[in-house]
What does this fold into?
Amino acid sequence: LDVAGGHNHLKRFVSDLGDAGIRVSLFIEASEAQLDAAKSLGAPVVELELSCNQPTGMVAVRLSDVAPDGSATRCTYGLLNLTHRNGHDRVEELEPGKRYRVSVQCNELGQIIAAGHCLRLSVSCSYYPLAWPPAQSTRLTIHTENSRLRLPERERQASDADIAFDAPRDVPKLDVEQLTQGQQRWLVHRDLDSNESTLEVIKDGGRYHIADADLTVADDTREYYSFRTGDFGSPSAEVMAHRTLEREGWSVYTRTRTVLTADSKDFHVHAELDAYEDGRRVYSNNWNRTIARNGV
It folds into this structure.
């Protein structure tokens, strides 16, 4: 990819196509006349000339800070549904094999890239489970001679030395007693027989008592994102949440479950809600909705 904008601190430039997509390394080499670090402030934009082998598809870009030891930290990312390349108010399918110019704006960032580090740009045609994958196997061809990465840069200013912030202020802390410990975990399960992979996200706040409100709270959420290799109808997202509020002589509890699946034409949403008061179920409902993919 070409680097636009005349960034004089980018000494070398390397482009490499790999299994994970396009890898671009922008090496920073400081000298007396240059900054000892690059200060990026704003929204990086990746301009790509690409073609797709399907009428629908997406492109995901990730910008990472890579240290000399090879460890990488994602700085920002951007997503684009290619059928929305001319605006989110319309769906325009692609002509397979035709070249298109698209711009992918990443999330804004304020980042200092240390001297000796490099920036790595990764490009792929899916980013599940952050974004739902295409309905079929999709291949993007990136034409690097007409593609570029635009990096926002903030130059050092004389007034920077005068910038100062007051000490942070905090609100008075609640008097909270943790009754049972929770857990926060991200687990990846792989079934080598079925080629199914599942990401399990545990957000368990445990059980705790808020003295000022004389209220005991329990909060536990589990998320599951799964797919089978090569099966584009297999992705599934499931979220289950349990909430409890209690004080002497009174308690309420809710259980919710939401499942999202899709076929080649539609998304399918199934949702459940059960609500209890003092151990008695007072409300229950199930919902099933079908939503057209419409270019997704």
User: Anything to note?
Assistant: The first strand starts at residue 2 and ends at 4.
